[in-house]
Design a protein that fits this description.
- By secondary structure, the chain is mainly alpha-helical.
- The protein folds into two domains: 35 residues, no CATH class; 76 residues.
- 67% of the residues lie in helices and 10% in strands.
- It contains three helices and two strands, in the order αββαα.
- β1 and β2 form a beta hairpin.
- α2 packs antiparallel against α3.
- The radius of gyration is 22 Å and the shape is elongated.
- The N and C termini lie far apart (46 Å).
Length: 111
């Protein structure tokens, strides 16, 4: 079905950002309108923080499953413990990085 020029204009205006905001080609944080580079960086940092947090949780779960399914094999238990240790170190570094980002004022997952 062909759309009229008026319908195209209405669709264009519906996607437009309020005055003073820039429209992005990709939605970040539920919206594709940002107030400037600070707002854009805040949304990107929040997205990256979330992805890293999910990856760390997955690593902890995988290490737990690896430990459970090791069936007492010393090599498998050692590998699972090493993976869990690395995941916990990653979690500590992640929390320190979030604290530094918060101190800089770029927002993030934790508020």
């Amino acid at each position: 079905m062909l759309q009229s020029p008026v319908m195209n204009l209405m669709l264009l205006l519906a996607d437009a950002c309020p005055s003073g905001q820039v429209q992005l080609s990709v939605k970040i944080g539920g919206s594709n309108c940002v107030n400037g580079i600070y707002d854009y960086l805040q949304r990107v940092v929040t997205l990256i923080e979330g992805l890293i947090g999910v990856a760390i949780v997955i690593a902890i779960i995988v290490s737990g499953l690896q430990y459970i399914t090791s069936a007492g094999s010393p090599d498998a238990v050692k590998s699972a413990k090493k993976r869990l240790f690395n995941a916990i170190i990653s979690l500590i570094l992640y929390l320190l990085a979030v604290a530094i980002i918060k101190a800089l004022g770029l927002g993030g997952v934790l508020g």
